[in-house]
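Shall we go through a protein fold together, starting from nothing but its sequence? Label the sequence line and the structure token line clearly, so we can match residues to local backbone shapes. Would you write everything just below, so we can both look at the same thing?
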Amino acid sequence: MALTYSSYASFDEVEAAYNNITPLRGTQNVGKDLRPIGDRARKYERIVKLSPTCYVLQDGWNYGDDLAPAYGMYEAGKFKGRDDQFMIEYAPIVWRKHRDKSETVTLRNGTGPSNHNGRYQFLYRHTPKGMWFRNRNGRHFIQVSGSGYHPRADSTEYYLAKQMKVPVEVYEDAKKRGGKWTKWMQKREQSPALTFKNLGDGDWEYVSGGKEIPKPPRTIVNKTLKARLKPHIEEFRSWALTVTPMLPMNDIDFVQRMRKETLEHIKEHYNSNTYGFWNLERGMAVRPEMCRNILKDSEHPLRVHLAYAIFSDWDEDYTRTQGLAFFNRKINKLCKLTETTKG
């Protein structure tokens, strides 16, 4: 199935494209008026005429799609009584012509906090002329330049947040079921979709929608706890830097013994499971209290094991500053001396 592209510059172009597409035939498509935007095998990617003044570019598999609904909308009757507004609320691209003859286009990201690769790809391939969908380290933007097919250096980018609003039936069903995987769902939400007014020839004016770019999470050190451990940390670091070069760090028998003895100690003293023991550092990191006890006890039986967990990926070419930073990060992680908070 071929991936196709479009760059409609006006409402009239969208309308003309719709009129020029022959609806899909066949017994499965009777009465559906399915008009694929490109490859006819990808019939879920289509142009939908909701009215003479509103067309939707649909990518399928979203809550507002009656042909290819998202999970949770498969049950019979979920679309009964739905109006066109329902499709508009979840579609990736909506073209409108208003009474004053002006034209607007609305672009929407996927619904939910997970990745929506199909939606990203669709927006990348079908944004209007003068717009571009951009992925900036996992955050998504609509770039508007007003120069047709090539973005200008002074072009503006508008943050396209993911949508958290779901149909009321899905929301209520999720709350009945419970579970952390549906806590993000909302019945109402300030519109994260972006709407632009068409000024002609690939030039656009922002109208409404969107959210502020979220601040990145911050890592905060528990200064009180770290201060209490500071003398033990410094003593362990000095000891480990002396001992570690003498350990057979790359010997498989030694590595397996480190894991086996650590596991036996945890089973005996913590009555815990074996999760994470393909990687000793990961296995220890989920038991910060144990790691703190190792730091404070110079005779602890897992003293060498903690040193191995920290220095197993040590780079001998580190400068003193880099080495101290490396050790500090490992200790913070293993002893859980930091917390990550929302920005």
About this structure: The first helix runs from residue 11 to 20. The chain is about 35% helix and 15% strand. The mean pLDDT is 91.
